TrEMBL record:
<dbReference type="Pfam" id="PF00015">
    <property type="entry name" value="MCPsignal"/>
</dbReference>
<dbReference type="Pfam" id="PF11563">
    <property type="entry name" value="Protoglobin"/>
</dbReference>
<dbReference type="InterPro" id="IPR004089">
    <property type="entry name" value="MCPsignal_dom"/>
</dbReference>
<dbReference type="InterPro" id="IPR044398">
    <property type="entry name" value="Globin-sensor_dom"/>
</dbReference>
<dbReference type="GO" id="GO:0016020">
    <property type="term" value="C:membrane"/>
</dbReference>
<protein>
    <submittedName>
        <fullName>Heme-based aerotactic transducer HemAT</fullName>
    </submittedName>
</protein>
<dbReference type="GO" id="GO:0004888">
    <property type="term" value="F:transmembrane signaling receptor activity"/>
</dbReference>
<dbReference type="GO" id="GO:0020037">
    <property type="term" value="F:heme binding"/>
</dbReference>
<dbReference type="InterPro" id="IPR039379">
    <property type="entry name" value="Protoglobin_sensor_dom"/>
</dbReference>
<dbReference type="GO" id="GO:0007165">
    <property type="term" value="P:signal transduction"/>
</dbReference>
<dbReference type="InterPro" id="IPR009050">
    <property type="entry name" value="Globin-like_sf"/>
</dbReference>
<dbReference type="GO" id="GO:0006935">
    <property type="term" value="P:chemotaxis"/>
</dbReference>
<keyword id="KW-0807">Transducer</keyword>
<comment type="similarity">
    <text>Belongs to the methyl-accepting chemotaxis (MCP) protein family.</text>
</comment>
<dbReference type="InterPro" id="IPR004090">
    <property type="entry name" value="Chemotax_Me-accpt_rcpt"/>
</dbReference>
<dbReference type="GO" id="GO:0019825">
    <property type="term" value="F:oxygen binding"/>
</dbReference>
<dbReference type="InterPro" id="IPR012292">
    <property type="entry name" value="Globin/Proto"/>
</dbReference>
């Protein structure tokens, strides 16, 4: 029978497993792919070769139905070229030889798949279709069902081993590329870290230097603010003292004002007294004149009386002298009164001027006192603001000192990061 022809070739077929890798041997052992089965696979190589075009056409018919896979083929090769490559690959798969060259060819297939971007899912799906096509050919050409099933199992094991090798190589290539990308990214990251660390260190050092200068300037400003605050306190104290002194001065001006009023009234009373004395003096002048006239008449009468009038004449003479002395005294007093009135008028004028000046001084003193009150209030507000600024400057200086410490920590951290990047 026809099937015997394929099986008869098994005994004459050459088979070899020339692999020392313990992992590969374990894989073969796991799927029970023995030397006898490899020899059986070699015996149907001619069957595979006879239907190779049918197998390859069915394989690529399935693949080209997927637009993504079709585009991968068009972007990287041609359908005819890939068909010929697959023909050789399938025929070699059933050569009965599993050795280093066999494994290397599968590894190259995996590398090509990775390079062109063929994902494992499409590879496994395509191999499933390939397996179905091979099994159909076996069932069509080998009538003995037991032998057909046996050969079908061998084909499944061969394809499974093929997939193991290719997928493992694909994964290794994937890991290698990822490791390569990782190393590349790592180197780029290290370079960026070095650059950033250098920039950070430079910026942090510049910032630290600037912060030191700023702290120094801030301390100077703080000292100036404290000095200004002290000056403001002293100024406020002096202004308060000035206000007190001005109040005292205003009190004195008020006393002077009251006294000038009293003096003005006293001088007015003096003027009135002088006027009254003048009236009395006029009366005395009139009396002196009448007395003088009376003395003159008495002298005349005494002269007429001759001897009997001598004594009366003496009296009349004395009265006349007294009258003349009185007249002279009254005239002198009158001249004094006139002079006193002149002086009094001058004193009244001076007192009025003093009174006006005192009134003006009082008004100015009141205005000055009000201004001093505003100054004291302004100084109090200003001192409060200065004290707030002083407190703010203390906080600012403290904050800047903390920033300076933090900047130093940034420098240390940047240097540590740079060292860590160099070690990594």
């Amino acid at each position: 029978m026809e099937h015997s022809r394929w099986l008869d070739q098994q005994d004459r077929a050459k088979a070899k497993i020339d692999v020392t890798d313990p992992t590969i041997l374990k894989q073969l052992e796991m799927i029970d792919l023995t030397i006898e089965e490899i020899r059986l696979a070699s015996s149907i190589q001619k069957l595979i070769q006879a239907h190779i075009r049918e197998i390859v056409s069915a394989f690529y018919q399935t693949i080209t139905n997927v637009e993504e896979l079709k585009q991968i083929i068009l972007d990287n090769s041609t359908l005819e070229r890939l068909q010929k490559t697959l023909e050789r690959h399938l025929i070699e798969m059933f050569s009965g030889q599993i050795d280093g060259e066999f494994l290397q060819k599968r590894i190259r297939v995996a590398e090509v798949h990775y390079r062109i971007g063929l994902e494992p899912k499409w590879y496994m799906g395509a191999f499933q279709n390939l397996q179905s096509t091979l099994l159909d050919i076996v069932h069509e050409n080998i009538g003995n069902r037991v032998e057909s099933v046996r050969i079908g199992k061998v084909i499944s094991k061969i394809l499974n081993f093929e997939q193991q090798i290719v997928l493992e190589a694909y994964e290794k290539e994937n890991l290698r590329q990822r490791q390569k990308q990782y190393e590349q990214v790592k180197e780029e990251l290290k370079a960026k870290i070095f650059t950033v660390c250098e920039q950070m260190t430079s910026i942090a050092e510049q910032t630290s230097a600037s912060m030191q200068e700023l702290i120094s300037s801030s301390n100077e400003v703080n000292r100036s603010v404290r000095s200004g605050a002290q000056t403001s306190r002293e100024t406020q104290h002096l202004a308060s003292q000035g206000k007190v002194k001005l109040g005292e001065l205003e009190g004195r001006i008020e006393a002077i004002f009251n006294r000038t009023n009293t003096m003005e009234k006293s001088v007015e009373l003096l003027n009135q007294s002088v006027r009254e004395i003048g009236t009395v003096i006029k009366i005395v002048q009139d009396i002196a004149g009448q007395t003088n006239l009376l003395a003159l008449n008495s002298a005349i009468e005494a002269a007429r009386a001759q001897e009997h009038g001598k004594g009366f004449a003496v009296v009349a003479q004395e009265v006349r002298k007294l009258s003349e002395q009185t007249k002279l005294s009254v005239e002198q007093i009158n001249s004094y009164i006139v002079q006193t009135r002149t002086y009094t008028e001058e004193v009244v004028g001076a007192i009025q001027e003093v009174h006006q000046l005192v009134q003006a001084s009082k008004a100015e003193s009141e205005a000055t006192e009000e201004s001093f009150a505003h100054i004291v209030q302004s100084m109090a507000r200003s001192l409060g603001e200065v004290e707030n600024v002083e407190a703010g400057m203390r906080v600012l200086v403290q904050s800047m000192e903390e920033i300076g410490v933090a900047t130093q920590q940034v420098v240390i951290s940047a240097e540590t990061l740079q060292e860590a990047a160099g070690i990594a």
